[in-house]
UniProtKB/TrEMBL annotation:
Upper lineage: Eukaryota, Viridiplantae, Streptophyta, Embryophyta, Tracheophyta
Xref: Gene3D superfamilies: alpha/beta hydrolase
UniProt cross-references to InterPro entries, sorted A to Z: AB_hydrolase_4_sf, AB_hydrolase_fold, Hydrolase_4
Residue span(s) of domain Serine aminopeptidase S33: 160-373
PANTHER family: ABHYDROLASE DOMAIN-CONTAINING PROTEIN, ALPHA_BETA-HYDROLASES SUPERFAMILY PROTEIN
Parts of the chain that traverse the membrane: 27-46, 571-595
Protein's organism: Linum tenue
Family per record: Belongs to the AB hydrolase superfamily. AB hydrolase 4 family.
Basic and acidic residues composition-biased segments: 533-551
Descriptive protein name: Serine aminopeptidase S33 domain-containing protein
Length: 610
């Protein structure tokens, strides 16, 4: 102790010596250290993978293809696409999903050309701008504003590609121009179907587009098919446009007049993407950027929107969800935002797709989470084999970025879609009759199972709105209220418990309220003539032997379930005892005495009895 005290008196305290040593380090070294820490932070925050690419020799990562083993689309088309079977290497100085997405938004390196515009008027008075780029105009570079549709000859044999842009995007978006120019350069005629209110066109009706609005796409596709009935049609959707495209294909199934399609960076599940926006700080930044674009779009059409939606709430929106609450769900006539998300998500309709469909998604997409990608749906189509879908997933790419090359002059997904459509157009599948191989109905769209379950939407004012079909739910509720505890006859009358005990001829009086066969309530003046009804209760097993066999198989199982339910409390106590013994042996011994007293020695297993 004396030695330590003497040393401290000579050299001072250890902390004082440490601070003196730190003060001798030059300030430039501290600046270099802070710079290094900042770079490490940015490297991880921006999810940069340059060092990994450097270590692997900039070979890129293989494209993961998901398809059914018996898929003719894969064998005849995707397997012959060199781009899909190859690797994707991002531009080295854009080795980040955020850098890819930001570069696309601010720069994009789009090719230069001029569209030819045609205005398409819908039956509700809406106006949609159709921007065309013909294969014959690519080299000339001319173009003009047209008010007629005579510029494309009826005998033009070149296939037509219809492009549906993403959220608040139009034909001038860099990624759209990349796709349009690439397809036109290969001999295709391309038309961009701008969303209502975009592309410099004013809103002329009270109808607006949203992620689940497929009517505009349906009208445009049908219109072009009627104008050029002998020309093969293909459709490409990007981001929200991809969600609209897949939903349209699932709704119309075999009735779509197109040969094939491609969906790029689709959100798939809107509710899941909404939760994704609220997870991390960087996703919240994207949420604010998208909200700013939506609010800006709304302000362009304030004269119409201000009388249809909650305009004050829209101006205060700080997230896409808040915007959808104040505007989108009201215009789309949904009770809540969650209902709108569930009913509008393409994942609920992908199982009904009846034409060859290429789906491209990036696993590092900062806008559309990888968790919403329908891997199983593309493989099995809701437990049935669907050969119409090929899902291509890349490890990198960002949201619609996919820039490649040192100068970032090309986009990988544009080359992939272009090659897929080229091979499909020259394959026998172009003339193959369409069919839905899934178990979904081919006449009605596939609804989300969550809307058919006992789920409700809690609104902000505390009221509860049903998530399912309102009319159907009301009929079910009425039937359940009037017939609870009774059996219903074929003519709508109810059978009491006493009548159920006999299978002979029974006489029953009408219950109040009386119900007709179609479910309507019988008026009081109609009831006297129907007071007494003679009905013979039939045994369904007499007419259906298969049902009798099924009942024979199910009855023993019902008995086992009943016995299990009767002893459920005993099992819970036994589990509690096992947990206690394994955790606290002393407490477990005391609990064993309690269980013996409560249930008797028969409750305790033979190996534990004393």
């Amino acid at each position: 102790m004396d030695g330590c005290t003497a040393a401290q008196s000579v050299f001072g305290s250890p902390y004082e010596l440490l601070f003196r040593a730190l003060s001798l380090i030059p300030a430039a070294h501290y600046a270099a250290l802070l710079l290094a820490l900042g770079l490490v932070f940015l490297y991880n925050f921006l999810e940069i993978h340059f060092l990994r690419d450097l270590v692997t020799g900039f070979r890129g990562d293989p494209v993961k293809l998901t398809y059914n083993a018996s898929s003719e689309v894969y064998r005849s088309v995707a397997s012959k696409c060199q781009v899909l079977r190859g690797r994707y290497l991002p531009t080295p100085w854009l080795s980040s999903p955020h850098l890819q997405t930001a570069f696309l938004s601010f720069f994009g390196n789009p090719p230069r050309f001029t569209y030819k515009r045609v205005l398409f008027y819908t039956s509700d008075g809406g106006t949609i701008a159709l921007d065309w780029l013909l294969h014959s105009d690519v080299n000339r570079g001319d173009g003009a504003y047209l008010s007629s549709r005579t510029f494309l000859q009826k005998n033009d044999e070149a296939p037509i590609v219809i492009v549906i842009p993403g959220l608040t995007s139009d034909s001038t978006a860099p990624y759209v121009k990349h796709l349009v120019f690439n397809m036109a350069s290969q001999g295709w005629n391309v038309v961009v179907s701008n969303h209502r209110g975009l592309g410099g066109v004013q809103i002329t009706s009270d109808c607006f587009y949203n992620a689940g609005w497929t009517e505009d796409a349906r009208r445009v596709i049908d219109h072009i098919h009627q104008e050029y009935p002998e020309t093969p049609l293909y459709v490409v959707g990007t981001s929200i446009g991809a969600n609209i495209l897949v939903k349209y294909l699932g709704e119309d199934t075999v009735n779509v007049p197109i040969v094939g399609a491609a969906a790029v960076c689709s959100p798939w599940d809107l509710a899941m993407c909404d939760r994704f926006f609220r997870r991390r700080f960087v996703q919240k930044l994207y949420d604010k950027v998208l909200t700013s674009g939506l609010v800006g779009y709304a302000k362009l059409h304030q004269t119409i929107l201000s009388r249809l939606i909650d305009w004050d709430g829209l101006n205060k929106s700080r997230s896409v969800r808040e915007f959808d609450h104040c505007a989108t769900r009201i215009l789309a006539k949904y009770e809540t935002v969650d209902t709108f998300y569930r009913r509008s998500s393409a994942v609920n309709f992908v199982g009904n797709v009846a034409v060859p469909l290429l789906c491209i998604s990036a696993l590092d997409d900062p806008v559309c989470t990888r968790e919403s990608i329908p891997w199983d749906e593309c493989r099995h189509a809701f437990y049935s084999m669907n050969p119409n879908i090929v899902l291509a997933a890349t490890k990198h790419g960002g949201h619609l970025g996919y820039f490649e090359g040192i100068a970032a002059g090309t986009m990988w997904w544009v080359r992939a879609v272009s090659e897929f459509l080229e091979v499909l157009h020259s394959s026998p599948l172009k003339n193959t009759p369409r069919q839905v191989v899934g178990t979904c109905s081919t006449t009605t769209p596939l609804e989300s199972k969550i809307d058919q379950g006992p789920y409700v939407n809690l609104m902000e004012d505390g009221t509860v709105a049903a998530a399912g079909d309102i009319q159907k739910d009301n009929h079910a509720a009425a039937a359940d209220t009037s017939n609870r505890g009774h059996t219903v006859k074929e003519n709508g009358e109810t059978i009491t418990e006493e009548e159920e005990a006999s299978n002979d001829v029974v006489e029953t009086k009408k219950m109040d309220p009386a119900v007709k066969e179609n479910g309507e309530t019988i008026a009081e003046e109609e009831e006297p003539s129907n007071d007494v009804v003679e009905t013979k209760k039939m045994d369904p097993a007499e007419d259906n032997p298969d049902e009798k066999k099924l009942n024979d198989l199910v009855s023993p199982m019902k008995g086992h379930i009943t016995r299990l339910a009767r002893h459920s409390k005993t099992f819970i106590w036994l589990l509690a005892y096992v947990a206690m013994v394994t955790t606290w042996p002393v407490v477990g011994s005391g609990l064993l005495l309690f269980l013996k007293k409560k249930f008797g020695s028969s409750f305790i297993p033979p190996t534990l009895r004393k």
